[in-house]
Amino acid sequence: MVEQAEQIIIGIDPGTNVLGYGVLKVTGRKVEAMAMGVIDLRKVSDVYLKLGRIFERVNSIIEAFSPDILAIESPFCGKNVQTMLKLGRAQGVVMAAAINHQIPVVEYAPSKIKQAVTGNGAATKEMVQRMLIHRLALTEETLLPYFDATDALAAALCHHLQAHSPLATLGPAHKSGGRAGSWSDFVKQHTDRIHR
Q1: Which of 20, 84, 152, 160 is the most exposed place for a label (fewest CB within 10 A)?
Q2: What is the C-alpha to C-alpha distance for residues 85 and 87, in angstroms, rounded to an integer?
Q3: Which helix (H) or strand (E) holds 156?
Q4: What is the pLDDT confidence band of residue 4, given thresholds at 50, 70 and 90?
Q5: Three-class DSSP category at 89
Q6: Is 91 helix (H, G, I), strand (E, B) or coil?
Q7: Helix axes 81-100, 47-65, angle to 10 degrees
Q8: pLDDT at 5
Q9: How many CB atoms lie within 10 A of CB 57?
Q10: pTM of structure
Q11: 69-147-137-64 Cα dihedral, nearest 10 degrees
C-alpha cells in the first residue's frame, strides 16, 4: 500500500491589531484543521513593537507546525491608504518570517479566497465561516469570537483547492492563483505570446 503524501498549509489573515492564523493538514483527499487562532495586539501601542511581536509569533507557529507552504491574504485595495500601509507592513513581516524558515509564500486576494471556499467572491465573513464548518467538520467549540481566524483558515483551504484544481498551474511557479512566479516561468508557459 502506497503511503499518501502529507502537506501542511498555514493560512494568514494579516492585521496589526488582530492577526489570524489557521493550519490545515492534507493527506491524500483528506483535509483537516489542525489549529486556528489569533495574535491579539490591541494592547500594544507601539507600531514597531507590534511588528516585532508578529514576527516572533509567526516564527513560533511555523516552528510548531513545520508547514510546507504559507498562504496569505493580500490587502484589499479598497481600504484607505493608512490601513493599506499597516496591512502591508504586517504582511511583509509574516512573509519575512516564512522566508526565514525557507517556507514558500503564496498570496490570494480576499475575493479569490471567498470564491474558492464558498463559490461566491462577494461572500460575507459569516458565509465563509459557515462553509468552513461544513467542509472541515469544525465544531462550535473550536470557533473563536474573531473572523480573523476563520479567514486565515480559508486562505489555507483556498490554496489547497487552487493547487488541486485541474485549471491551476501546478509546481513551484504556482503563485497567486496560477500566475507565473517569474519572467522566465511566464516565457516558458507562454512561448506563443513572446515575439523575438
Answers
A1: 84
A2: 6
A3: helix 147-163
A4: low
A5: helix
A6: helix
A7: 40
A8: 83
A9: 18
A10: 0.80
A11: 40
